Amino acid sequence: MSPTVAQHLQDSVKLNNGVQMPWFGLGVFKVQEGREVIDSVKTAIKHGYRSIDTAAVYKNEEGVGQALAEAIQQYSVPREDIFVTSKVWNADQGFQTTLDAFDLSLKKLGLDYLDLYLVHWPVKGKYKETWKALEQLYKSGKVRAIGVSNFHVHHLEDILEDAEFIPAVDQVELHPYLSQVELREYAQAKGIQIEAWSPLAQGRVLNDAVIQSLAAKYGRTTAQIVLRWNLQSGIVTIPKSIQEPRIIQNADLFGFELSAEDMSLIDNLNKNERVGADPDNFNF
C-alpha cells in the first residue's frame, strides 16, 4: 500500500494515538544555542514549517523556546499549530531521572507541554525503565505522543513485550544509502511512524550520480529529490539548515512527484552505510 503523499508543507500524518504530526519539519542538531538557533527556528516558522525537532543533548532548547515564543507572537501562529519534539539523553535514562529530565526540557523550552518526547538511544539495561517514565508522562498529559529514536527491530520487540503503549514514532538515521527497509516494514506492521534524521546523509548522497541525474531530469536540487523520496516513501523528515534560502528550498517539495521508476532507482542506492553510530555499537 503506497502511503498518503503530503501535498503541502503543513500536511500531517495521523500517529497511532490519533495525534497529527507534520510530515516535514526542521531539525536543530548542531545548531548553536543563542542567535543561530533562534534565527533558524523563527525563519522556518515564518516560511510555513510547523514542526521543530530538538533534544536535551543538543544544548539549544532555551534558544528553541525563545524562538517559538517570538514566532508565535510575531507571526500569529497558535502554539497548538506547532509540533515540538525533544528527547531524553542517555545519561538521564532510568525512571525518575527521565521524569526530571523531561521537566527540565519543558522549563528550558518555556512550554506547558511537548508534542513528542523520545528515548534518544536504546541504552542497554535502561531503556525499558525510561519507556515506563515516558508512558507516565503521556498519561499525565504533559506530552501528546511518545516514541523512540535509534531503535532497531529487536529494541522495539523488547519494549513491546511489556509496554502499555506502542511507540508512536521511531526516529532513525535514514537516507538513500541507509534505507532501513526491514525496520520500515516492521514499524508499519506495528503502527509506528518512521522519522528520518540525517535524511541527506550529511550531504553525502547529494553527490550521487543517480540523484544528480534525477535533479537534472526534474529541474530540482539534489536535496529536493532526496527529501521528496522520503515523503513519497511515507517517512517523516526533518532536515537541518541555518540558511534562509536553504530552509525555503528544502521545503519546496510539493510541485512535483517522482515516478515509480525513479523511486525504485533511489531505493536501489541502499548500501546499509551510516553517517552516525550503529545503535548496537554506540559508545554510551
TrEMBL record:
Domain NADP-dependent oxidoreductase: 35-270
Keyword tags: NADP, Oxidoreductase
InterPro entries cross-referenced by the UniProt entry: AKR, Aldo/ket_reductase_CS, NAD(P)_OxRdtase_dom_sf, NADP_OxRdtase_dom
Transmembrane residue ranges: none
Key word Ubl conjugation present: no
Domain of life: Bacteria
UniProt key word Oxidoreductase: yes
Signal peptide positions (record): none
Family under the similarity heading: Belongs to the aldo/keto reductase family.
Descriptive protein name: Aldo/keto reductase
Organism: Cohnella boryungensis
